[in-house]
Write a structure and sequence with these properties.
Layout lengths: L2 H7 L3 E6 L7 H12 L6 E5 L1 H10 L6 H12 L11 H15 L6 E2 L1 H5 L13 E2 L1 H10 L2 H6 L3 E8 L5 E5 L7 H7 L9 E3 L2 E5 L9 H4 L7 E7 L11 H13 L3 H24 L2 H9 L11 E7 L16 H21 L12 E7 L2 E7 L2
Parallel strand pairs: 1-2, 1-9, 2-5, 9-10, 10-11
Antiparallel strand pairs: 3-4, 5-6, 5-8, 7-8, 11-12
Helix pairs in contact: 2-4, 2-14, 3-4
């Protein structure tokens, strides 16, 4: 273990949070590759949708082979450039997207002909989707060892939406024996993909309710000192759209960035309150403090600290609202390389080494395109 990985380990558990975003998930592979080369390995991975798939691939077998599993998956689902290199990027992207919509993506999904006959065609609760994800199920069955997930050193959590009650559900290997259904449910984005039944309930993609599942880390019990690397595929910042094309693109960014800023603001307030409770409890006489402890009130106090590194993936020049189905070799490679390059730049800057207020329990370091957006937020 080198000095950087030792420094990270000194902050407590290392958590990797992976947002949903279809083809944009190639960026997360580059992030993980850079972390792995720096010997920064997660103790806990939380993912939604494509983030859950990448997380399962990382945790589903020997750590030394995790990047090999990720590579195998992304190579299987990539699409060839059907028009050659002489056409403009925007035209080639539109053509690839049309192919994905009409014929599917290898090893991932294929059209469900019955669904295209009529929106009123009775398909059944577990088949009501425009596409079948049987190819994805077969791919993950081959690449992911769920016994390793349930018994291995990495804790895995995947988020899904309960269709019946609209609640966000987190399936956690610490508490539940995970299997293929849990990962498939996390990526079951309607109406493209059908719901997945687990027990007596149906589940859709967790991104419908929370595409950035970092709140499950903040609300974990017991809370622990942590270094959290949260990889965001949808940038919350963007220019004002001027065309319908740009509106559709920006709408997806806004929808799937999942109110990350409000989550962070809420958690910073909660951490401050927990610290205040702890400090005030310490000032009480022993008898009064014992009474509060007996009533379970001192448990609301907490002195843990979390450093959260948000990595925001910048857009490619030719991206549009269909960027999440751009499974082209070129698109996957560009996003993968960008994730790797940006994470290497972040690790070189090591922003967590800056002085922070000792009373602060939540410290944010935000990067976009490998550049620090602003100093640590500690006020």
């Amino acid at each position: 273990m080198d000095s950087l990985s030792e420094e990270i380990a000194g902050f407590g558990q290392t958590v990797l949070v992976l947002q949903g975003g279809g083809a944009l998930g190639a960026y997360q592979v580059g992030v993980y590759q850079a972390l792995m080369e720096a010997d920064i390995l997660p103790d806990w991975i939380v993912g939604t949708s494509i983030g859950a798939i990448n997380a399962a691939l990382i945790a589903g077998g020997p750590t030394a082979d995790s990047l090999e599993r990720l590579t195998a998956f992304w190579r299987r689902i990539e699409q060839d450039n059907i028009l050659g290199v002489s056409v403009p990027n925007w035209f080639s992207a539109a053509a690839r997207n049309m192919v994905a919509i009409t014929t599917g993506v290898p090893s991932f999904f294929r059209p469900n002909p019955a669904a295209f006959l009529s929106q009123q065609t009775p398909l059944g609760s577990e088949n009501a989707g425009y596409y079948s994800v049987a190819p994805l199920a077969a791919t993950l069955t081959e690449l992911v060892d769920f016994d390793a997930i349930n018994a291995g050193p990495i804790r895995l959590t995947v988020g899904a939406t309960n269709v019946g009650n609209s609640n966000m559900t987190y399936f956690d290997s610490r508490d539940t024996q995970l299997d293929l259904r849990h990962v498939m449910a996390s990526g079951a984005l309607p109406p493209a993909f059908p719901a997945v039944r687990i027990g007596d309930e149906l589940f859709w993609d967790g991104g419908i309710l929370s595409n950035t599942p970092v709140e499950t880390v903040f609300d974990d019990n017991p809370r622990r000192n942590s270094m959290v690397f949260a990889v965001h595929l949808w940038n919350p910042e963007g220019k004002e759209p001027e065309t319908i094309w740009e509106v559709m693109n920006r709408q997806k960014d806004v929808q799937y960035s999942s109110r990350a800023a409000s989550h962070i603001q809420r958690q910073r307030q909660l951490h401050k309150l927990r610290l205040i409770i702890s400090e005030m409890s310490a000032l009480l006489p022993d008898k009064a403090r014992a009474n509060l402890k007996q009533r379970g009130l001192t448990g609301y106090g907490c002195t843990t600290r979390m450093h959260v590194v948000r990595l925001l993936a910048p857009s490619l020049d030719y991206e549009d609202h269909a960027k999440d189905i751009d499974f082209s070799k070129q698109g996957i490679r560009q996003r993968w390389d960008a994730g790797y390059r940006h994470t290497c730049g972040m690790l070189e800057q090591a922003p967590w080494g800056a002085d922070v207020d000792v009373s602060e329990g939540f410290v944010l370091h935000e990067f976009c395109g490998g550049e620090l957006v602003e100093p640590a937020m500690t006020t």
